[in-house]
Amino acid sequence: MAKSLKEKPSEPSRVQLALASVIGWRGVSLRVPEDWTLSKVSSEGASGYLRADSLEGPFVQIRWSEKKGLVSVPDAFDTYVRDLQKTAKKQRREIEFKLKPRVLAGVHKPADAPLTYSWSSDQKALGLIYHCGECKRLVIAEVVAPPESDLSFGPPVLASVREHGEGGWNLWGVHGLIAQLPKEFQLEKHTLVTGHVMLRFRSRSRLLTLQQWGLANVALKGTNIAEWYEYQERNRLGRYAYRRDRTPLRGHEALWLAGRDKIMPGIAKAVQQLGALTRPALGFHACAWRCDETNRIYALSAEHFRGDNIFDQVLERMACHPGSVADQ
Amino acid sequence: MTMQLTFVEPLLQKLFPKKFRPKITRQEILSAVPVRNTLVEWETNDHDEVVLKVPRRQDRVGRILHRVFVAPPFKQVVLDEVGSDVWHLCTGENSVDAIVKTLAKKYKLSRREVELSLANYLRTLAQRGLIGLTRR
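Predict the joint structure of the above. Result:
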């Protein structure tokens, strides 16, 4: 399966990606200026919050919640305004709102009944609130900046906000780790520390793990990607029986692993997954590669069903450097 | 309320230095210039890593401990590749901002990644008395 991918060039990605500026989390995605980074994420069930900060102070924040049935965007806006006014009153600040600022005209598709606004207090903001009829998410997105800042970056950032993925694929973008995953895969565990990003997704018994490490030139000094990755993941890889391959990926030094669970862990896993009435995912594929353009190490591993090509599909949509997947 | 807190702040900082640390802005940190402690001797080893020779404490307790445990007069600290780069850049001429730019370019890291790591690293070096931070 992995072999076939290596032989043919990767197909163009269906959704456009702009590297280094894409932020995506649980279906919500946006494009931000290059030096902005994801600084806060949270989600509880159908609701969530995302914030990306610039170095100088301005930031963008998005709140979303799933609202089914009849949803009134103006009512939701009034509630939000009341909350902000309450907070401002507590902090003894004045806050002024303005509806439909001219700079935000046409910033979002009219089908979602968007309502645009701006507010100014000890900071100033441009915002957008709308309800998506397709994913039923009520979204409040706003760019906030100190009063003396220029908010000209606001409209393009707000215009790039998407509340769900396209074609059943959600866009994930965290500190340069950019990939598209089928929306049935839910984030199970994540690590976001300087130098290492790990996102683990699950869809019933299938498991996908995406990882990114920084400082590849330092980490791989005196070693190679194969030795390094197998050592790094030794605890996890111990449960699989696999064969290795060193075919480059997109011109990068890479390690490919293909196999399945060892007999005893495999039986235990199969029993457990059958007990949960799910099809056992005993197949295993992994690929780790070093991207010289970004000086990072990327890795994707998957536990999947027999004959399932999820590993290849996601690998095709996992970007490492500009142009690595047909993007932009 | 805010005014009162501002007024009380220096007193609180004096009484509870750990809880009420002085607020330093990002700009102040970036414009600070790290300088190596001149008492710390250093050299570069075969792997291009910086080896610091940190003198042991010279007070009475230090001298007694030194005699009892027959410890060498210096403690060696070997910095890794990135740490060595930072040490080489702490000449007293480069500001934190300049170091951030150099490291971001060399290691192809984002500015924020470098800022976070470098801030922690410089703090560690400063707490151990290996460097000091000055204003330009």
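The CA atoms of residues 200 and 305 of chain A lie 17 Å apart.
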